[in-house]
Design goal:
This protein has 372 residues and is α+β, with helices and mostly antiparallel strands. The protein contains eight helices and 27 strands. A nine-stranded antiparallel β-sheet has the order 15-12-13-14-27-26-25-19-23, sandwiched between helices. Strands 5-2-3-4-18-17-16-11 form an eight-stranded antiparallel β-sheet. A hairpin with a 4-residue loop joins strand 25 and strand 26. Helix 7 packs antiparallel against helix 8. It is elongated, with a radius of gyration of 25 Å.
């Protein structure tokens, strides 16, 4: 088959992001090229998810070939001709572009290795979600999992229902949005990472369902938009879903607090960076505490066990503002601030439990530190 190089490189670049490099295995390292009825599918899987990127081709013959994903995709990215030709010959895939390249096909037990797609046979939900919602889960909820303390497997998962997404460690990220059908699922980081494959502001068909495999019910989810399709098996059960303290986290994030102030994001990040210079724990550490004194008009930050201080004037504050003092983890707070795109942020506080950073549909819960 003859392919336009630029178009094919775009498809290859997309599927490259779905190649799972975290575990070495024949399946993870394999790219399947399948032509059926003049449609070429580039397929990869890690058995948790199956991802496919499709494009039309002029070939009238059906074909299946499996090759080393990294080698093939790297080679295609470096071809500079306008067109390339791909053919099967014996046990190799022949690619003609700037030169002629022969890639050995992958076999298992004497037969060509073919990737097994994940199929949803019993659909329970089928609706459309905007890709910007999926991107927001990747952008904001993922940040929560890069900080804080993770002591339970559930804290590595993304909880999603019809009201939004929640991730939690020592604190939490509450991402509020509305889905048109009620659902309750847990997504792994590997699945959420694939959301970047979808272009911004496009419709994505989301399908939920299940299958009975050897007496075990497998919950599955599929995301389909244009040429891109992701189907995954959800490695969670009802007990895990029920173990997420959804009401408590949303109650904390959306609660009514005694005080609120607006602070410039960049000024606060710069102040934290300067204080971390003096922190004995800042290099290679995940904990660096500081005292935050919210005055009537100004926030004073003082590094723990240090005389170094920073002063930040509020952009705005509630009329009943009184002095309030607490302790926060500077590194924890900095990671959250760096995930914000807004220049001005609202801080809610006053219950001696947590500071809530409110911005649009996102609420970040930063736990107050109470050292013994």
């Amino acid at each position: 088959m003859i392919l336009k190089v630029k178009e094919f490189q775009t498809a290859c670049k997309t599927i490259l992001d779905a190649v799972d490099t975290t575990t070495n295995s024949i399946v993870n390292e394999t790219l399947e090229l399948k032509v059926v009825d003049s449609v070429l599918s580039l397929n990869v899987t890690n058995k948790e998810y199956f991802t496919s990127v499709k494009m039309p081709v002029s070939s009238e013959e059906n074909m299946v070939a499996t090759v080393d994903a990294k080698v093939f995709l790297s080679l295609i990215s470096k071809i500079t001709t306008d067109e390339l030709e791909i053919t099967k010959k014996d046990n190799v895939l022949v690619i003609k572009g700037n030169g002629v390249y022969k890639l050995p096909m992958i076999y298992s037990d004497g037969s060509l290795l073919e990737l097994t797609p994940i199929v949803i046979n019993n659909v329970t939900s089928d609706f459309v979600v905007n890709s910007d919602i999926l991107h927001s889960i990747l952008a904001y909820n993922s940040k929560e999992l890069s900080k804080g303390v993770i002591s339970r497997p559930i804290q590595k998962m993304y909880y999603v229902d019809e009201d939004g997404a929640i991730t939690f460690t020592s604190g939490a990220c509450v991402n509020s949005f509305k889905l048109v059908q009620p659902i309750k699922i847990l997504l792994s980081g590997k699945i959420v990472k694939l959301f970047k494959l979808f272009p911004k502001n496009t419709d994505v068909r989301m399908i939920l369902g299940y299958d009975d495999v050897g007496g075990i019910t497998q919950t599955k989810v599929s995301f389909v938009s244009g040429a891109i399709e992701i189907t995954a098996i959800l490695n969670s059960d009802e007990d895990m879903l029920l173990s997420v303290p959804v009401s408590a986290i949303r109650g904390r994030a959306n609660g009514i607090y005694k005080y609120s102030v607006d602070i410039n994001r960049d000024q606060l990040i710069q102040a934290i960076d300067r204080l971390l210079v003096f922190s004995s724990q800042s290099v290679g550490a995940t904990r660096s505490y500081a005292r935050f004194k919210f005055g009537v008009e100004t926030l004073t930050i003082k590094a723990k066990d240090s005389e170094n201080e920073e002063f930040i004037d509020y952009l705005n504050c509630c009329t009943k503002m009184e002095e309030y003092e607490t302790m926060l983890d500077l590194n924890d707070l900095k990671i959250t601030l760096e995930s914000c795109v807004e220049s001005d942020l609202t801080f809610w506080f006053g219950d001696k439990q947590a500071i809530v950073i409110a911005r649009g549909n996102i609420r970040n819960v930063i736990p107050e530190v109470h050292l013994v």
